[in-house]
Structure formats: structure tokens, C-alpha cells
């Protein structure tokens, strides 16, 4: 759990607050989201497809893609919790938060 943690977002990097010596970091390169994967040295990558508003993982396959519909970010397989977003949160930050879920120990 990441209770009480603070994060910074500069438009490209989402990471734990520097003052807390955080280790978790996600990156948005304009087309690829990259974040750590639990129990692995290899990071997880999601490619963003703007035409369909989908995030597709090269390692997890299309069946584990995420898609924006109106103001919801939903797993296409229906097996994950849906993100309901209100306000002006950048869409990529919401997918990064899903990445934070993926990277947590079970």
C-alpha cells in the first residue's frame, strides 16, 4: 500500500516525492507509458493508440488493453476495476495510477 505517499507529475514523469527518497517512477513519452512491474526487473509498457483511445501492453497482449469511454477508463477484458474520472485529470495520469496498481505486491 502507498498510504500517505506524495507524488509529482511534470507532464512526462510521475514519481514519488523526492523528499521521501521514493523509488517508484512512471514515464509518459507521448505514445508509451512505462512503469515498474511487481516482482520483475523488466518494466511494463503500454502503447497509446489515439484513434481508439486505448492503452495496449506489448507483454500482456490486447486482451489486457485499457480503453477510454466518455469519462471512464475500463479494462477491455472486464476483469479489472473501472476508473471514473471527474474534473481535469490528464488521461495518461489515470493510466499511470493503474500502473501503480499493477506494480504493487499482492
Describe this structure in words.
It is a single chain. The protein is mostly beta strands and 106 residues long. It is 12% helix and 38% strand. It contains 1 helix and 9 strands. The protein is globular and about 35 Å long.
Order of helices and strands: EEEEEEEEEH
Low-confidence runs of at least 5 consecutive residues? none
Helix content: 10-25%
- Sheet-strand content, in percent, reads 35-45%
Radius of gyration based on Cα positions: 13 Å
Number of alpha- plus pi-helical segments? 1
- Placed side by side, the strands forming the largest sheet appear as 1-2-3-4-5-6-7-8-9
Report the biggest beta sheet as strand number plus sense, adding barrel if it closes: 9 strands, antiparallel
Coarse morphology: globular
What distance separates the N and C termini? 10 Å
Give the mean pLDDT.
81
Number of strands: 9
Look at the helices and sheets and give the structural class: mainly beta
Keywords:
9-stranded antiparallel beta sheet
Q: What's the layout of helices and strands?
A:
Elements: E1 7-9, E2 13-16, E3 25-28, E4 32-35, E5 44-49, E6 54-57, E7 61-69, E8 72-75, E9 83-84, H1 91-103
Antiparallel strand pairs: 1-2, 2-3, 3-4, 4-5, 5-6, 6-7, 7-8, 8-9
Briefly characterize the structure.
The chain has 106 residues and is mainly beta. Helices cover 12% and strands 38% of the residues. It is globular and about 35 Å long.
Amino acid at each position: 500500500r502507498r498510504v500517505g505517499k506524495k507524488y509529482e507529475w511534470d507532464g512526462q514523469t510521475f514519481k514519488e516525492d523526492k523528499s521521501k527518497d521514493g523509488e517508484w517512477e512512471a514515464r509518459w513519452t507521448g505514445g508509451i507509458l512505462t512503469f515498474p512491474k511487481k516482482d520483475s526487473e523488466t518494466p511494463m509498457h503500454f502503447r497509446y493508440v489515439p484513434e481508439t483511445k486505448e492503452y495496449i501492453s506489448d507483454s500482456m497482449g490486447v486482451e489486457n488493453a485499457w480503453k477510454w469511454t466518455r469519462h471512464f477508463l475500463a479494462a477491455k477484458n472486464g476483469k479489472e476495476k473501472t476508473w471514473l474520472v471527474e474534473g481535469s485529470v490528464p488521461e495518461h495520469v489515470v493510466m499511470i495510477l493503474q500502473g501503480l496498481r499493477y506494480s504493487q505486491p499482492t
